Amino acid sequence: MAFLIDGKKISAEIKDELKEQVAALAAKGTTLTLAVIQVGDDKASSVYVGNKKKACEYIGVQSLAYELPASTTEEELLSLVKELNERKDVNGILVQLPLPKHIDEDKVLLAIDPDKDVDGFHPVSVGRLWIGQKGYESCTPAGIIQLLKRSGIEIAGKECVIVGRSNIVGKPMAALLLRENGTVTVCHSRTKDLASVTKRADILVVAIGKPKFITAEYVKEGAVVIDVGIHRMEDNKLCGDVDFADVEPHVSAITPVPGGVGPMTIAMLMCNVVRSAEQ
Q1: Are 111 and 84 in contact (CB under 8 A)?
Q2: What is the pLDDT of residues 173-194, one digit of tens each?
């Protein structure tokens, strides 16, 4: 039976560590403030924003919530970002995605001061990540690194395969695994004979947005499997990009869905907010 990598437990440990760090900073007169901007009332976004507020409250970080109507113009949003960039009492700025279609997401993300980009999406943050400079790491990939390390799973020298090349997960995941001295392959929709590549993986990270796509035939015996996907099925149950029931008997460790990667994203966002005290 595979070892279940418990994201709930590990994220709780990280938040407890951050709570102590925030208290130590407060004792020295340093307070931290995260500004969260949501445009429109997308239900999933509202849940994420609510969870971020709860995490801030738990670790002792102040949060400023800007809940703007869907009719907000691009100019109005950019003006708010500019104002928050200039506020010395604001350490981090987070614009919840997706934005309404009339707003250019790239333009908004570019407008955020890279030193306040706690999501790690700004091109400057991405560049810093790839060349090994200090900066904010993309939250989900950074959370996966913590899941592996805190579960005692060695990365250095291992064959690491990522399925998916998105800017939010796949590409930064490759950079972080390289930083940990993994040997990294990134697969995508044009990869030929995908199973022959994924079966080489000692560590397989799956982030493709297709429910239960990865079955046992794609996985090497004894591999570690990290499932980034999350989908709600017709029976209202959640599943990932990996067919858990089919894959679990063949691997040494695996993340469940839910309760694996998901909780880590917000924990690592909080890490970036605390890191902002150093910026």
Answers
A1: no
A2: 999 999 999 999 999 999 999 9
